[in-house]
Amino acid sequence: MRAAVLVALVGCGGGSAHADAAGDAAVACTAQFSGNFAETSSSPVDCATVMAGSDVALGFAIESTTLVATVQVAIDLGATPSAGVYSSDTVQTWSAMAFQSIGNGGCEYSAGSSATPTGSFTLALDAIDAAAGTAHGTLDVVQYVLTFPGTNCGSASTESLAVTF
Q1: How many domains does the chain have?
Q2: Which residues pair with 145 in a beta bridge?
Q3: Full-prediction pTM beyond 0.85?
Q4: Domain that holds residue 35
Q5: Hey, which bits of 65-157 come out as E strands?
Q6: Distance (Å, rounded) from C-alpha 8 to C-alpha 74?
């Protein structure tokens, strides 16, 4: 059931926008990439989705113009999640994945409880309402960059992603 919940919510979006740090425009999601490339991505559409089932899962769909792809993150928060800090050390099932096509090869950005190497994440939930399907906070993810033969993915072996939602 957990895998089905995580797969089902990854492509979804929802929730409401909030003001950015300066209190200016309505921003539902801001993501900063660093490692092999640097990019800041902001969206008025919420990138976090909450799906309730036997467990509550939190999913993210983060657009990257550099990758020309979406980074998909799924975190199983258990049966009754609450505001607080979660990490790859405290959550049993999670994943973060993106793929960038380059010529005949590509770069896989991968992390998760079933990935090798696993990477890591820290999630600070300021608020979560599973019934309403909303969550707000920050997420930091470290993904490993896996290079296909004959492909240059950059000099760093990891890509960091910092998300405010």
Answers
A1: 1
A2: 109
A3: no
A4: 2-14+29-164
A5: 69-76, 84-87, 94-102, 105-112, 120-129, 134-147
A6: 10
